[in-house]
Amino acid sequence: MDKSSLRQKYKALRRDMSLDQIDELSLQIANQSLKLDIWNFEFYHIFLAIENQREINTEYILQIIFGKDANVVIPKMKGKDLQHYLLTDTTKLKLNQWKIPEPVNGIKIDPEQLDLVFVPLLGYDTLGNRVGYGKGFYDRFLSRCKKDVIKVGLSSFPPEEGVLGVEDFDIALDYCITPKTVYTFSQG
């Protein structure tokens, strides 16, 4: 299936889910994440959910990271790129024009410092190819991270058999965590 069709499919599937369903699936995803050996890093980048898009609620994973005394980094849109800020007790958040919670200000973090990135997505395939919203924010951002940064998708759904239209600049996932299992993708 091509990216455009997958975007439509998963947006429709999400629209049919209640916020309570999303919350329950998000808790299950956080529990599944504990099965991965990813909890000994210093810098974790995570998206904050767009509630009206029915994205995975990342609050549960945030609590795991804070419980490990690790640093949480969150994105802020700037033009066609993302900037990255340390999330602290004093970080003020504000919804941007797309209803994405973003830091108002704070300590900037370079993408090269990140050890692991939790990546938002609409769909993905059995090879770890991700379908996002189509603006390229995360592919541009991930291309600036260190080569061995771990890329973890979060999804309520199992993978597709394949995504048509994968481009050279698309960056695949290393893992995708769902409510029932963790998918591992071998790159290269």
TrEMBL record:
<keyword id="KW-0547">Nucleotide-binding</keyword>
<feature type="binding site">
    <location>
        <position position="50"/>
    </location>
    <ligand>
        <name>substrate</name>
    </ligand>
</feature>
<dbReference type="GO" id="GO:0035999">
    <property type="term" value="P:tetrahydrofolate interconversion"/>
</dbReference>
<protein>
    <recommendedName>
        <fullName>5-formyltetrahydrofolate cyclo-ligase</fullName>
        <ecNumber>6.3.3.2</ecNumber>
    </recommendedName>
</protein>
<comment type="similarity">
    <text>Belongs to the 5-formyltetrahydrofolate cyclo-ligase family.</text>
</comment>
<feature type="binding site">
    <location>
        <begin position="130"/>
        <end position="138"/>
    </location>
    <ligand>
        <name>ATP</name>
    </ligand>
</feature>
<keyword id="KW-0067">ATP-binding</keyword>
<feature type="binding site">
    <location>
        <position position="55"/>
    </location>
    <ligand>
        <name>substrate</name>
    </ligand>
</feature>
<keyword id="KW-0460">Magnesium</keyword>
<keyword id="KW-0479">Metal-binding</keyword>
<dbReference type="GO" id="GO:0046872">
    <property type="term" value="F:metal ion binding"/>
</dbReference>
<dbReference type="InterPro" id="IPR002698">
    <property type="entry name" value="FTHF_cligase"/>
</dbReference>
<dbReference type="InterPro" id="IPR024185">
    <property type="entry name" value="FTHF_cligase-like_sf"/>
</dbReference>
<dbReference type="GO" id="GO:0005524">
    <property type="term" value="F:ATP binding"/>
</dbReference>
<dbReference type="GO" id="GO:0030272">
    <property type="term" value="F:5-formyltetrahydrofolate cyclo-ligase activity"/>
</dbReference>
<dbReference type="GO" id="GO:0009396">
    <property type="term" value="P:folic acid-containing compound biosynthetic process"/>
</dbReference>
<dbReference type="InterPro" id="IPR037171">
    <property type="entry name" value="NagB/RpiA_transferase-like"/>
</dbReference>
<dbReference type="Pfam" id="PF01812">
    <property type="entry name" value="5-FTHF_cyc-lig"/>
</dbReference>
<feature type="binding site">
    <location>
        <begin position="3"/>
        <end position="7"/>
    </location>
    <ligand>
        <name>ATP</name>
    </ligand>
</feature>
